[in-house]
Structures are given as C-alpha cells and as structure tokens.
Specification:
Number of strands: 9
Structural class: alpha/beta
CATH superfamily: Spore Coat Polysaccharide Biosynthesis Protein SpsA, Chain A
Largest sheet: 9 strands, mixed
CATH class: Alpha Beta
Shape: globular
Strand order of the largest sheet: 1-2-5-4-3-6-8-7-9
CATH topology: Spore Coat Polysaccharide Biosynthesis Protein SpsA, Chain A
Distance between the termini: 14 Å
Order of helices and strands: EEHEHEEHEHEHEHHEHH
Helix content: 25-40%
C-alpha cells in the first residue's frame, strides 16, 4: 500500500496493490489511460457498491472523500482503488479538482466524473470511453434524457434555467449543464483553470463548460438514464441558491464580454459556431482503460 500526503489529511492509494496481486508485476496494458473520479460526502450507504460496479469497467477509480462524518472512506478499505481525503468539507468543485489533478499528475489521457449517490449507472462507463475514442478532443457530457419524469419539478426548472444561461456564455447549445457524469480530455484539463470556492461549489462544473466552449473544445452529448431512488437522501444541489449563484457567475462573465451576443445566437442555433479543431483520426483504439503506472 502506498501512503501519500494530501492537502490536509493522509491519503491512501490501493489501486496498484490490487492490480499487481491480480496480474503479477506487469498489469495488463490497454491503449487508453482513463481515471474515474467520484467526489463523495457522507455516502457510506452507496459508495462501496457504486465503486465496486465501476471497477468492472474502469480499473482506475479515485474517490475523493470530502470530509465525510459517516465513515464513507472506511467502507472502501480493501477495495482496489484510490481514496483521497479532505480533512474538512471543501465542496464538490474542490473535490473534483483534487481528483482530476491527482489523475493528471499520473499521466491520465482523460478523466471521467460521476456522482456518488447512485444516480449514474457505472454500466454507462464503456459508452463514455467509446465516445472518447471517437471524439478524442471533445468533452463528453452525459445528458439525462431517460427517466427524467421522476425528477422533482423545481429541480427540472432550475436545471433548464441554468442550461439557458450557461449555453449562452459557452456559445453553444448544451442540453444538461448540471449533469455530473462527464469525460474530460486531458488537454481540456490542462488548458482550463477554474478556481473553486466552498460557497460556490456547484458553480465549478458550470464554469468548466463555459471555458471549454470559449477555448474551442467540442462537446459530444451522450444520452444516459436519470435515476432517482425513492427514499434516497436529497440532492446537495439547492435549486434556488445554487442556480442563483450560477446565474450570477454567468452574468458577470457576459457583462465583461459586452453581452457576448454571438454566444446567445449560437446557443439558440441562429448562428453557426466556429469550427472545432478536433484531433484527427483515432490515435488510441477505444477499449478497457489501463491502470496508472506505479511511480518509480
């Protein structure tokens, strides 16, 4: 087991020990090195099952325990994955950024993110990986188109309201800006730098979409199921407060860009967006991603 010092707490990394135990000292190599980052706050009831299902499709799983008080990290002991622990609750945005930075430092080609509350199906991971193979320079966004009728009406309205503003600022139509099931290519994470504050945690993912659009990255939307479990804890996303914070962030950007009228026209489909310079061909054949190399 590797022990590394994190931001303010002791992190533990278990992924390589399990890979080596299963495959000897030479873990199987496959063309793409993709990490799955799952931010988790008080998800002891769901995280172990979710991570176990995810490992069947992606051998490199990073869970960021965001200062949980219910033993979330303890439920993952013995599993072949990496756990990074925040001493205090820093918010989803900061936890996502930490997991992404950890993966990038180990040479990830892409980072997938998904929520820890069970609303995303790990069985969809191969579809994201295949989409990355076909669209290697694009952000892959899971769009909740199936089962959305079960979503709370206020949440649906808040999401659609946020979609309008974020699409305007990004300069392209985006169908589900609040979906946390995404794949970020490494080049995007290197070029897009977003600061995350605890008070505006959910603003982080919206800001990434805007900056990706402004920097010319493509967007590929992938239909996914929308899963709402009866009796499950309420979402940490507060429709009124968090949507208001997102709109304030977008309004400030639009004001600084003199309204960005071309972005509005592009988001409404009235103006053709600039050509996306996506990587030519498919440099890496899609398949099951490989685990990270063990540091020397």
């Amino acid at each position: 087991m590797d022990y590394t010092r994190g931001w303010a707490a002791v992190d533990y990394t278990r992924g390589w020990a399990a890979v080596e135990n299963a495959h000897g000292k030479n873990p199987p190599e496959s063309p793409m090195k993709i990490a799955l980052v799952i931010p988790a706050y008080n998800e002891a009831g769901t995280i172990a099952a979710l991570a176990g299902d995810a490992l069947a499709h992606c051998p490199w799983v990073i869970v960021v325990d965001d200062g949980s008080t219910d033993g979330t990290a303890e439920t993952l002991r013995g599993m072949p994955l990496t756990v990074l622990r925040n001493e205090n609750n820093m918010g989803k945005g900061a936890s996502l950024a930490r997991g992404q930075q950890h993966a990038m430092a180990q040479g990830a080609d892409a980072v997938i993110t998904m929520d820890a509350d069970g609303q995303h199906r790990p069985g969809d991971l191969p579809r994201f990986i295949a989409a990355f193979g076909n669209h290697p320079g694009s952000l892959i966004l899971g769009v909740r188109t199936r089962g959305s009728a079960a979503a709370p009406s206020l949440r649906v309205f808040a999401n659609r309201f946020a979609d309008f503003w974020i699409s305007w600022a990004a300069g392209m139509p985006i169908k589900d800006t609040q979906s946390g099931f995404r794949l970020y290519p490494a080049d995007l994470l290197r070029k897009v730098k977003i600061k995350s504050r605890r008070a505006g945690s959910f603003v982080f993912e919206s800001a990434v979409l805007i900056e990706a659009g402004r920097k010319g990255f493509g967007l590929h939307e992938l239909p996914i199921d929308s899963i709402y479990h009866p009796g499950r804890r309420a979402s940490y996303y507060r429709p009124v407060i968090d949507t208001t914070r997102i709109v304030i962030m977008v309004t400030w950007k639009l004001w600084s860009w003199l309204g960005y009228p071309q972005g509005l026209l592009r988001s409404l489909g009235l103006l053709k967006p600039p050509a996306v310079k996506e990587k030519q061909g498919n440099p890496k054949t899609p398949g099951k991603p490989r685990a990270p190399r063990k540091p020397a």
